[in-house]
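Lab notebook, design round three. We kept the backbone fixed and only want residue identities now. Task for the bench partner: fill in a sequence for the structure below.
Input structure tokens:
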């Protein structure tokens, strides 16, 4: 598992870790039951604070992406397909919101956006 951190990213490091692990789970790169590195091992690998990785894992557990078993480690949790679909739709909404904002700036009309989306879906 490769996590890439950036000092140029406006998000805090723990959010970068959380986002990348969520993405790996959502895309199937990590699947139910896969073990994650220990908090300490990940901190050492990324050369960051243990508290930072602990925060990222706590957020992932809170959101239902991982589960931690005392003395054994953290694992990708079994996900409900409806929950997974909702998470993906949320990602789409974020990107659509950005696209609509750009379209408004460029004075692109609603029908042009629909046509563009139709074209992209055909590819």
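Proposed sequence:
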């Amino acid at each position: 598992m490769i996590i890439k951190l950036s000092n140029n990213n406006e998000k805090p490091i723990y959010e970068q870790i959380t986002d990348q692990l969520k993405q790996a789970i959502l895309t199937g790169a990590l699947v139910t039951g896969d073990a994650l590195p220990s908090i300490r091992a990940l901190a050492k690998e990324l050369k960051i604070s243990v508290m930072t990785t602990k925060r990222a894992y706590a957020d992932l557990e809170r959101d239902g992406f991982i589960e931690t078993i005392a003395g054994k480690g953290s694992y990708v949790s079994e996900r409900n397909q409806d929950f997974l679909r909702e998470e993906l739709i949320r990602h789409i909404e974020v990107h659509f919101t950005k696209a609509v904002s750009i379209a408004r700036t460029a004075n692109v009309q609603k029908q042009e956006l629909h046509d563009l989306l139709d074209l992209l879906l055909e590819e």
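Keep this in mind before ordering anything: The radius of gyration is 18 Å.
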